[in-house]
Each structure stands twice: as C-alpha cells, then as structure tokens.
Amino acid sequence: MSLSLLCSNTPEGRRRKDIRYLVYDLGKFDEPTQKLLRIAADCLSNSSSTSTTSDNEDDGGCEDTGSRGKLFQHKSPVPKMGRQTYKMWKASLELSMGLFSRANLLDKPKTLHFWPLENFPDAVTTNFRVPGFDLIEFLVHFLQTYFPGLDVRLENLHDINTDDSNLVSRYHKKTKKKQFLVSDLYSQLHSLTGTLKRDFILGWTWTDLYPTEELNFVLGEASFVHRCAVLSFGRYEPLSYKVNEDLETVHGIDGDVEEDEASSVRVDGDLLWKLLRVATHETSHLFGLNHCVFFECSMNESKSISQALSQPFFLCPICLRKLQRFLKFDVKERYKGLFKVCRTLQEFYPSPGMERTCQWLERCMTFLNTENGS
Ligand SMILES: [Zn+2]
Ligand SMILES: [Zn+2]
C-alpha cells in the first residue's frame, strides 16, 4: 500500500476517509457501482469545484462531466445537523430489531402490503391508459421496480369506514370534508388489517389526511416504528389540488374551496408524478431512511408542495447505499427497470417531472456502463 493511501492529509486520503464515513466499505460492489457510490464524498469536499483529484475524475458528481452533466448536486454547505450516514442508519435499524423481533431485520425477506383502505371512484381507477394495468396495479408495479427485493403485494380493499375502528377524524373547516388523523391510522393499521407486525404496510385512502389539530393536511406520512405509511388521494381532487398549488406550505393556510365531485378527477401525468414521488418517499422512510441533508435527493425534507415536487425522483449515493443494503438489489439492474417503467409512463402520461427523470436515468446508466470514465 502506498504512503498516500495511508495518509489522510492528502486529498486522496481525505476523500477515502469521507467515503468510509458516508457510505462505508464498498468492496463488495462492482467497479461501476463503487464509482457511483464514491460520489458521496463530493458533498464534504470543500474544493471540489477547483481541484481534480486522481480518483474522482469523471465521477459524475461535482466535477463537470461535459454533455452528460452532473448526476448529483450536493447541498452547499452540508448542514452539520440531521446527517444520517450509512453507518448511522444501520445502527438505528439494529437498535430497532429489539422492538420487533430477534430476527435480523436486514437479512429477512421483506413484504410491503399495498392496501387500498377506501373505495376509489371508477373515474380514478379505470380507463388507465398504460396497457395491462389499472391505476392501482400500476402503482404496485412501480413500487416493485423502485424497491427491488421487496415483495410488494396488492391487497383487497379494506374499507376503514365500515369497520368499528373508531379512527380519529375531523371535518376540515373550509373544505367541509372529512379528514383522518394520519398518526391514528398508521398506529392501528396492523391490527385493522390483521397483518404481521414484521411486515410493512402502505395504506391508500381516498379521504384527506391531517397530521395534527393545528395543521391543514398531509399528502402522506410514514412511521418507521409502526412500519406503516399512509398516502391520501384526497388532495389530488381538482379543486383541492388547485388550493394546494396556491398554498405556500404543505401544512399551510386555508384556502376557499367549493364543492367538487369525485367524478371530475382527471388522472394525468402531473398527478401521477406527484403520487409516485410521495409513495416512494414515504415507503423509503419505512426502511429507516431519514430526510437527506447531503444532496438534492428524493429523501429531502419538503416544506411546501412545490418544493416537494421539484425534488428529484432518484436517491443520492448515500441514500441509495442504505436502500441497497436493506433490499440487496443490483444497482444497475434497478436503474434499467426504472428507466423502462418511467419511459412507459411518460409515453402514456407525459409530465415534465417524469421527462427529467428519464433523462437522468439515461445519463446514470451511461455513467455506470462507462468503465473507468472512458
Ligand atoms: Zn419525509
Ligand atoms: Zn440522499
């Protein structure tokens, strides 16, 4: 081993230290995947815009990769608070094992139950244009592709309005529409659905959700401890949706809204983009991923709907490292599968967000297929 590898004061030594701190040992990955994950260190590199070290040339991170552009944009500076490195994530999972079972959470097969919790109007679920799917089946297919290694099961309707669950709800003072208290919902989901606690649940409601008495609504929320997440379609109704666009914050001010009808819901590319963004973000929380402060990343915290929707679909190298360890997928194969499903969706339901994602996936696959940056 050369002296430069041992010395952490050289740029190369510092970079290796940063890589280890952020994503730990990458030895088991093939070289292209290692190259992608090593980009993690760019977020701690103060001089990345002016210096070029020998092992980060053409690394797709902060260095200019020419026509391909940057794959990942790090926060500048990365805040000291809120960092969840790969090792921190793994330690928190190992700690949580005692809460659920003695079984090793990381090495057991994982099941996610996708559970429609209310009846959806036919206008929403039928006449879906992607061949071979209705809307709900497509969501499940997308989640399966985004989370390879996870067994995503579509469950039959479990209507939370017809049982005696006594879920906490309220009527929104402006929309006059019913809202479920989301934390009450996910704290009861396993018992409502009779699911094993070691499994994960992603519930989907038609009714709007609210997080606390003072706040207006949430599109979705997840609880790592309960292994449950809930998404709502409630805010995608055209008029509510318009109010959303006008709101400055997700939990923001009230807007005036008139009566609307479920039948007027129009499933388009923008709506699907939003739905998939929220579904993948909340599901990732179920696996212990915290909000990401390192890069522009699918796991960034969002304080407004417009902010949430401007964030990327893809995970940064640090969040990808966690998800890969949890589900043990092949990174390249995952991107290939995602590209295929995103392209298909873009063909039938175009949106600017999905177009950006397709272009990014293409660049990423080119990067992974380019050995040694050549
Ligand atoms: Zn979140
Ligand atoms: Zn991230």
Overview of the structural elements:
The chain has 374 residues and is α/β, with parallel strands linked by helices. The chain has two domains: 3-83, no CATH class; 86-366, Collagenase (Catalytic Domain) (3-Layer(aba) Sandwich). 40% of the residues lie in helices and 10% in strands. The strands form two sheets. A five-stranded mixed sheet has the order 2-1-5-8-7, sandwiched between helices. A three-stranded mixed sheet has the order 3-4-6. α12 packs antiparallel against α13. The protein is globular, with a radius of gyration of 22 Å.
State the helical fraction.
Answer: 25-40%
Compressed to H and E, one letter per element, the order equals HHHHEHHEEEHEEEEHHHHHH
Shape designation: globular
CATH homologous superfamily (4th level) name of the largest domain: Collagenase (Catalytic Domain)
Bound ligands:
zinc ion
Structural Rg: 22 Å
Q: Averaging pLDDT over every residue, what do you get?
A: 83
Please mark out the parts with pLDDT under 50 across 5 or more consecutive residues, or reply none: 47-58, 62-67, 241-263
Number of folding domains? 2
CATH topology of the largest domain: Collagenase (Catalytic Domain)
Strand content: 5-15%
Termini gap: 26 Å
